Amino acid sequence: xxxxxxxxxLRELIVSLFPLYYERYIEVFGxxxxxLFHKSPGNDFEVYNDFNSLLVNLYRCVRDRYExxxxxxxxxxxxxxxxxxxxxxxxxxxxxxxxxRAAYFYQLIRxxxxxxxxxxxxxPHDMRSNFPVIEQAHRRLAKVVIENKDFExxxxxxxxxxSFFYLDPPYFDTEKYxxxxxxxxxxxxxxxxxxxxxxxxxxKFLLSYNDCEFIRNLYNTPGITIESYSRINNIKQxxxxxxxxxxxxIANYDxxxxxxxxxxxxxxxxxxxxxxxxxxxx
Length: 282
Ligand SMILES: C[S@@+](CC[C@H](N)C(=O)[O-])C[C@H]1O[C@@H](n2cnc3c(N)ncnc32)[C@H](O)[C@@H]1O
Known about the structure:
Blueprint: H1 11-16, E1 24-27, H2 34-38, E2 45-49, H3 53-64, H4 66-74, H5 80-91, H6 98-111, H7 131-140, E3 145-147, H8 151-158, E4 163-167, H9 188-199, E5 204-210, H10 213-218, E6 225-232, H11 234-237, E7 244-251, H12 257-261, H13 268-274, H14 277-280
The chain binds S-adenosylmethionine.
């Protein structure tokens, strides 16, 4: 589902840069879970974490009580009045039942403008069209441990030499969008706290960030690799055709160890060379 800072467009690249060997996969800032859902389930022990308790409750209900959740969602109205009432109830933290709380939160995500949770989107949408996706997510999450911790505690708890952490924190200078997460939201100092936690782990980590001087300086240290990538910036694109959004990936292992181990790289030119022309025209 849409989520602020969601890694939908980078998930392919991110998964291709995972280390070759690890036994524990820990997604520290899980959000919409784009990377976890893209990664194939293997024999590794998987952990999804986020500090947003409404989001974590939703994923736990998808994993453990999806039928109750769908029953609850079946009768949700796509209406401004219902949306405002639900928002108020969730703000006051007065919904005690987990499944109801999860349904209300999902309703806000689905019926808000740009999934921003704040204003009613006024778009036609049949809630039941989401049920097949909820069921797929239910199966994918079956063996995933779902945590609701601050990143520092989580990293300390799951760190082992065979652990691999993927981290997608709030980007530098976008912290204001996460102010209702945890007790104080994400603060500028938290970027330094994250760096300190990561530089002392025994396992491996891959971290995604926006490309800026502050973050580059923070990780400018021996043994750490920083690579830049850029993707089309959807918002800027509307005003400035071709605008790119520069991002960096930071890791404490060789980001290209998979390239060196893949048998032989096939490209379009090899295919043309190796196969007769007729076979190429499908
Ligand atoms: C950029 S988003 C992650 C997006 C995710 N990778 C995706 O594809 O949807 C950052 C996430 O960090 C979470 N977060 C904020 N502060 C946190 C903290 N102190 N510990 C753990 N998670 C936190 C937010 O709730 C948010 O979901």
